[in-house]
Amino acid sequence: MSAKTLYDKLWDSHLVQQRDDGSALIYIDLQLLHEVTSPQAFEGLRLAGRQPWRVSGSLATPDHNVPTTKKERIDGVDGIEDPVSKIQVTTLDDNCNEFGITEFNMKDIRQGIVHVVGPEQGATLPGMTVVCGDSHTSTHGAFGALAHGIGTSEVEHVLATQCLVQKKNRNMLVRVDGELSPWVSAKDVVLAIIGAIGTAGGTGYAIEFGGTGIQSLSMEGRMTVCNMAIEAGARVGLIAVDDTTLEYVKGRPYAPKGEQWNMAVEAWRDLVSDADAQFDEVVVLKAEDIKPQVTWGTSPEMVIAIDEPIPRPEDQKDAVTKEGYARAWKYMGLEGKTTLADVILDRVFIGSCTNSRIEDLRIAAQVVKGRKVASSLKQAIVVPGSGLVKAQAEKEGLHEVFEAAGLEWREPGCSMCLAMNADKLGNGEHCASTSNRNFEGRQGFGGRTHLVSPAMAAAAAIAGHFVDVNELVKH
Amino acid sequence: MRPFTKHTGLAAPLDLANVDTDMIIPKQFLKSIKRTGFGKNLFDELRYQDEGQPDQECTGRPLRDEFVLNQARYAGASVLLARHNFGCGSSREHAPWALDDYGFRSIIAPSFADIFFNNCFKNGLLPIVLQAEEVDQLFAEVTAKEGSEITVDLAAQTVTSPSGAEFTFSVDDFRKHCLLNGLDDIGLTLQEESHIRRYEEKRMNEAPWLFMSRGE
């Protein structure tokens, strides 16, 4: 038999039916649901008089709309002040009740961002197919699972059939060789990869991330890398299963136990690309070359190392790039600035499905400990990814470290990553954000987002502008 | 789903690469639990000077005159010409819903983001990939002459430019079949129920942990 990539193996093990026209029916093991992209899917089921194929194949939690202040959270869904958000969250509760789908609602300590909750509960397991009406579903690929975002019509399709009609992607390997430098994190790695291949570089591919620079990452770090595969255009990001994966999964509430655990581990050990597997495309980066990254523009590919000058439109050769850069310069208000240290920050956001896990919070706390947030900042907020991340952080006293430094400690949710709740940027405000998208208006109308790692966001909060975290921690 | 067979309509050129789904429909409009009514907020931040709110009446809002869809000559456009990587970013199906609700039937670009591309087919909206030079030619022709129409023929897999130049495009057989006939693909998949059941039985033996109840 010919050698297979990890993606090939996952595809083959979920193939229900290969059709003559080139499309295929793929079985979906887990669908994660949240309030924004599911209401129309449930409505579709109802209109067609259909029932979910298998309710244990779904898990739901509200995340996008939920408020993050204590005041608005104390009464669960009843406390949401925005009436439109409240309807959406209530609709998710009602739909899950009606169809018998397990939901971690706003009063459940397990509630949080779907992409934090799934792995945390062991609902996401190696070798699974995982989908969600959210493009950052690629996150779950960190477990050697085939995971990708879908639209609402497909959410309905999976609810009704537990399958999707798919066409196979091509295989890409992105290898990061060597050892990462101090304070260089998974976020810097993935931003550097996007900078190298562009936001459409992975379109049509499933990207497997490999090499020592990836293998050395914790599961939290691996999730950060796979999370942003979509920002490189790839719906699917993958990392092979190893001991780090198994150690993370073992003992989680939904993880197999006893004899089933042994059986699962035996199957999961095969979730690696064969040594002689062929990839359609291979990209190699040197870990040592990667420095702390900061985005300067309105696309994740508009990214530079902290010590680099901001690239200027007039230096670009390609006409479309030149125009795109000019538009980004104007939107981001970069005129008269040469480096990102020149950008005065208004807000700092530490959170999102990219960087709101316990490890992210520990690193940020380590940077701000014993320091004070710059007085020029209007706000710096830390939003844990789930109720359980929040509880763990509080057990470790991280919330006290943040609050002593002048950062706000919030309740779990997507928050300022996409500003569907009250947490948003004002027009023209600059934000150091650990989220995943710096598109125009993403964090609020006219808001200016700079994507960074938790360590770099924490350093920026202290300095009031971007600074190499290595420099900051020296003092 | 509404079928798509052949369509001739006024084309509007959106000359911007990497148009993301946040641009197509900003997040504040995603709070709706319906599939319709997004057209008035299509490209909201490119189209209007102020920040749009859900359920707001849009007729009196100040427009950005330079934006292509605000120009009188493109009123009633149903074919959108776009650039590289159109529809990148979030998986929100509200993006094709908004384009459809506004009146677009087809989008032509040199490349699309995967999830957006896929979502279009579920909504009777046809995304077409043409060579970059062909898209350039369409941009040039449409910009040069007011009232320029483009014809899209899905059965023949051709795009006809205002001057009569014909370009061919490729489309997956399954997607073409569903779109031409306006088929609901859930219904089609459920015809394969026995295959799904058989697959599940096999998997329950191989990997029983995948079928555990979620409990409380």
Automatic annotation (TrEMBL), chain A:
SUPFAM superfamilies: Aconitase iron-sulfur domain. GO terms for molecular function: 3-isopropylmalate dehydratase activity; 4 iron, 4 sulfur cluster binding; metal ion binding. [4Fe-4S] cluster binds at C353, C414, C417. It catalyses: (2R,3S)-3-isopropylmalate = (2S)-2-isopropylmalate. InterPro entries: 3-IsopropMal_deHydase_lsu, Acnase/IPM_dHydase_lsu_aba_1/3, Acoase/IPM_deHydtase_lsu_aba, Aconitase_4Fe-4S_BS, Aconitase_4Fe-4S_dom, IPM_dehydratase_rel_enz, IPMI_cat. Binds 1 [4Fe-4S] cluster per subunit. Its EC number is 4.2.1.33. Residues 8-464 form the Aconitase/3-isopropylmalate dehydratase large subunit alpha/beta/alpha domain. CDD domains: IPMI. Its cofactor is [4Fe-4S] cluster. Belongs to the aconitase/IPM isomerase family. LeuC type 1 subfamily. Heterodimer of LeuC and LeuD. Catalyzes the isomerization between 2-isopropylmalate and 3-isopropylmalate, via the formation of 2-isopropylmaleate. HAMAP family: LeuC_type1 (MF_01026). This is 3-isopropylmalate dehydratase large subunit. It comes from Marinomonas transparens. The lineage of its organism: Bacteria, Pseudomonadati, Pseudomonadota, Gammaproteobacteria, Oceanospirillales.
Automatic annotation (TrEMBL), chain B:
Pathway: Amino-acid biosynthesis; L-leucine biosynthesis; L-leucine from 3-methyl-2-oxobutanoate: step 2/4. SUPFAM superfamilies: LeuD/IlvD-like. Residues 1-132 form the Aconitase A/isopropylmalate dehydratase small subunit swivel domain. Its EC number is 4.2.1.33. It is an enzyme of class 4 (lyase). It comes from the Bacteria. GO terms for cellular component: 3-isopropylmalate dehydratase complex. Pfam families: Aconitase_C. Catalyzes the isomerization between 2-isopropylmalate and 3-isopropylmalate, via the formation of 2-isopropylmaleate. Belongs to the LeuD family. LeuD type 1 subfamily. Heterodimer of LeuC and LeuD. This is 3-isopropylmalate dehydratase small subunit. It comes from Marinomonas transparens. The lineage of its organism: Bacteria, Pseudomonadati, Pseudomonadota, Gammaproteobacteria, Oceanospirillales.
